[in-house]
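Need tokens for this chain, all 347 residues.
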Amino acid sequence: MTHPQYLDTLGLWEATAGLPEQMEVARATSAAVLADARLPDPGDIHAVAVLGVGAGGQAGDAAAAYGAGHSSVPIVVAKGYEVPAFVDAHTLVFAVSASGDAEETRSAAEAALGQGAPVVVVAGGGALGSLAQSEGLPNFSVPGDLPVGRASLGALTVPLLMTLAHLGIVPDVDGSLSAAEGGLHRRRDALMAATGPAEEVARLIGRTIPLVYGSTGLSSVAAERWKTQVNENAKTPAFFAEQPDLSHNEVAGWGQHGDVTRQVLSLITLRHAGEHPRVTRRFALVIAATDEVMANVIPVWAEGDDDLGRFFDLAFFGDFVSLHLAGREGIDPGPEPAVGDVRAGLS
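Here are the structure tokens for all 347 residues:
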């Protein structure tokens, strides 16, 4: 499935295209782990905290956004070295890292254990895997054949959702995840194609900087995913914001410098059939206010029948847009020299 025309030394096209299969495997392995995992009694769980950065943080954001409309307890995401002060024996904590070696997540997980919290690990080995083994923690392993952590969105997100559903914190998600996988299978060939919708969005963006607008909930998480995938795969700036909040602040910023912004910015709006009707109206008004100051205004509509299906569809679409952007400029999407430099400086 590697794109025949584009440079791709790490096989990121193939890994990206494998998202539906990755989700299927994650569902099966999660069910097996949950059958034997020692988890707290649901009645003892008063809150959930997800610890993660990068793709691990995005998995947490997806679980929290889904939980906002379905969860019986608050779900908080922490993307740093410290664990939230409220974490205690009644907080279910997930430590999520594709490699298992994110130092921020490891540090926060150790602090959570110190505060008496039950911890569940989602990691591909590394320090977190070792911590799970030494402490006897439930551990959902991440496939070791993925070339980079950002290609593990399904492997990181599915165990969180399955565990929350297993505990009754959110409704059963198996059917929604299965439907989402089917939708991604149907979309894949078109999104990979040299004349498909993802390539067309990449062509319209061209060498401008994408600004991605989502709306509160999983669409906002997808918008951030677009931003970070463009950063990491295409090695170019990108930004995101969410409705309705951007209608109260960011929209005011387009009153000046239109002669500059229309040369350098393209606006992408992530839309879906489930958005609030007032958000639909807000999108129309913001687009009217920004049309003259953007190089392009590009709507992308999600496919899928529910929140999870639409989220994974938008994320999948954005992943391929970022790969097409990289390919059009002759950029190798896999390696991240700048991120490596930061890590080297820290070590």
